[in-house]
Amino acid sequence: MLGNSPLNYKASIYGKGQGPGSNSGLVGKAQGTNIPANIVTINVEGNTLPEGIYQLAAMVILGLPDMELTPKPGTTGAIDGGQVEVY
Prior knowledge:
Elements: E1 7-17, E2 24-34, E3 45-46, E4 52-63, E5 76-86
């Protein structure tokens, strides 16, 4: 793959509330195309989290423009983040 070939992406952010009666589920998602670089930013718009403490996780699927963006070995990255407190 050439270094400046565009890559399609699909990104999802999930939140799991901590504590009794906490909400969990999809927080936001985005889909589009980026040019590979050392640092790439993907802006994700979504739901506003209610006040509380959450564990966040992100999943990003990358593929060439002619590929279907479904989870496959080598095309998916997942990050489990730390806790975030929403005031």
